[in-house]
Amino acid sequence: MLAKVISTGTFGIEAYPVEVEVNVSKVDFTGTALVGLPDAAVKESLERVRAAVTNSGYHFRTHRMTINLAPADMRKEGPSFDLPIAVAILTASEQIVAPKLEEYALTGELALDGRLRRVNGALSMALRCRQEGRRGIILPEENAEEAGVVEGIEVIPLRTLTEVVGFLTDHVVMESYRVDLAQALGASSHYEVDFSEVKGQEHIKRALTVAAAGGHNVLMIGPPGAGKSMLAQRLPTILPPMTIEEALETTKVYSVDGLMRAGQSLIATRPFRAPHHTVSEIGLAGGGAVPKPGEVSLSHHGVLFLDELPQFERRTLEVLRQPMEDGHVTISRARMTVTYPSQFMLIAALNPCPCGYLTDPKKECHCSPRQVQAYMGRISGPLLDRIDIQVEVPAVNYRDLRNPAEGEPSSIIRERVTRARDLQRARFKDTKTFCNARMNNRLLKKHCKIDGPAETVLSSAMQSFSLSARAYTKILKLSRTIADLDGAEEIRTEHVTEAIQYRSLDRNLWA
Ligand SMILES: Nc1ncnc2c1ncn2[C@@H]1O[C@H](COP(=O)(O)OP(=O)(O)O)[C@@H](O)[C@H]1O
Ligand SMILES: [Mg+2]
Ligand SMILES: [Zn+2]
After folding, report:
1. Of 249, 267, 300, 440, whose Cβ has the fewest other Cβ atoms within 10 Å?
2. How far is the centre of ligand 2, averaged over its atoms, from the C-alpha of 229 (Å)?
């Protein structure tokens, strides 16, 4: 007979429904046929299903079976179809009768002994099942935490094929697994590091506060040991707390990539990713034969740190352009296009010269001006165009380092940043823009008016540093953010003066 089981596959970070159909012939003994473009993994699945079915005390018939995974035009990946295939086989061969099958979606990899193993993308799957109005989803116990945050459907975590059959035939009772979303968000929103650990460097902390407040990308230039990496790592801790929507979206990326830790329901702290400069284009932007999210997506709603910026291949950095512009990455394949979200703040660091000590008062630099210029010239122009703040991080002052007093904690800075972001959200509420850094020319004209003394300061800076038109816009945006941190409606002279300080490279300190 013919049996139909509902399952779900993932594509990008979204899930889509898959129907697993199995037909068992009563008269034909010519083996098994798999249809619906299953990849090698789904074929291997049949071997596991055979072992799991027999080791669970059922028969794997030798009658001809036709197994179809629909829709046929989607590539099915991964072992998550083991469980639905097994249950469909048991139903089609009339070993079980399970009317509940119509109401639940099934997903899970099978171990040879019939135990269920975790699958990737359980959060997206559960969300999709809710969207389709299903009663629930049956999945491996290890995926319970991830899927349990989805309200409005039953999340049934089970351990073995036998338990699944028991549940479907009303021999096993299992309550829906619930994770309180708000509670999970609160419980996992704690960072391991804090700004209070950074001594001194007040100027840089302020620059990072401005960056966080307006969503401005940052470039830090300074000698080795100045604390650039330490500062960068702490940028996520001063960004506004993640909203539930943001946490769910970032979690989906980690969930489809199989990166959730056991027992973890949500990614509720903003990610910090620091790929090595040898990272490949695919590693950075995502892609591959079986598409996977790259670093730009793993930093979604968080921070991407590029340390030793001149060491990255220009060609590799080129791939940042689309994700930075659009907030998502599109990966095209012959038959399909996958999209991953990629809204991140970029923070980059570099030494001021090849040896690193050009700006260090205590160590001597042996680089020639030509070497320094060649080194700085390696920074990709288009990338530099997307960076609003350029600051010099001086070697850390010994007295500051010895000072036992703690710096301002991240929580206080974060409150300041959050207030500034709230102002921006209200300002841009009818647009797609959400922070000052993303203002287009029209918004810039409307919200960054300056006149009187502020205007005089800016135009004289333009002249004395021969700033470009691009630098001018960046200074305006930064001034807007600094005014927002100040709670000021109008951009004033002191806001502009501070903004000009964040354009170190434009001020030709190196040329
Ligand atoms: N301002 C600072 N306050 C406290 N410790 C610091 C500070 N700056 C540097 N350090 C210490 O020096 C180490 C090296 O700093 P790091 O961030 O790796 O420098 P960089 O990335 O600029 O080479 C840090 O791990 C930290 O222990
Ligand atoms: Mg470093
Ligand atoms: Zn040097």
Report:
1. 440
2. 4
Ligand 1 atom at minimal distance to the Cα of residue 307:
21
Mutate to test the pocket of ligand 1, among 199, 220, 230, 231 (most ligand atoms within 8 A of CB): 230
400 sits in which H/E element: helix 398-402
Q: Whose CA is nearest to atom 7 of ligand 1?
A: 227
The pLDDT tens digits for 174-208 are 999 999 998 888 888 899 999 999 999 999 999 99
Distance from the CA of 280 to the center of ligand 2, in angstroms? 20
Contact 389, 219 (CB under 8 A): yes
**Cα first-last separation, the chain:** 79
Q: Which two tokens stand for residue 447?
A: 């919200």
Superfamily of domain 187-193+201-407: P-loop containing nucleotide triphosphate hydrolases (3.40.50.300)
Distance 351 CA to ligand 2 centre (A): 9
Whether omega for the bond prior to residue 354 falls within 30 degrees of 0, making it cis, is no
Ligand 3 centroid, distance to 277 Cα (angstroms): 20
| Residue 165 exposed, middle or buried by CB count within 10 Å (0-12, 13-18, 19+) | buried
Q: What residues flank ligand 1, with Cβ below 6 Å?
A: 198-201, 222, 224-230, 396, 401
Q: Which amino acid type is present at position 97?
A: V
Q: Looking at the predicted structure, is the pLDDT value of residue 171 above 80? A: yes
pLDDT at 29 over 80: no
φ/ψ (deg, to 5) at 108: 160, 145
Question: What does the block give as tokens for 386?
Answer: 């997307």
Q: Which two tokens stand for residue 331?
A: 């990966």
Q: Could you report the per-residue pLDDT of 81-103, keeping only the tens digit for each?
A: 999 999 999 999 999 999 899 99
Outline where DSSP puts E strands in 122-259.
136-140, 154-158, 218-221
Residue-wise pLDDT for 227-251, tens only, equals 999 999 999 999 999 999 999 999 9
Closest C-alpha residue for ligand 1 atom 11: 227
Which residues belong to CATH 3.40.50.300 in the chain?
A: 187-193+201-407
Spell out a b/e string for 364-375, using b for 16 or more CB atoms within 10 Å of the CB, else e: ebebeeeebeeb
The token pair at 202 is 């007040």
> Strand 303-306's sheet: what is its strand order?
272-273, 303-306, 345-350, 218-221, 389-392
Cβ atoms < 10 Å from Cβ of 332 = 10
Give the Å distance between the CA of 106 and the centre of ligand 3: 61
**Would you state the CATH architecture of domain 2-179?**
2-Layer Sandwich (3.30)
- Give every CB contact of residue 474 below 8 A, 6+ residues apart in sequence: 388, 503
The average pLDDT across 437-457 equals 93
Q: Which two tokens stand for residue 1?
A: 């007979």
Q: What band does 336 get if pLDDT is binned at 50, 70 and 90?
A: confident
Q: What is the pLDDT of residue 511?
A: 45
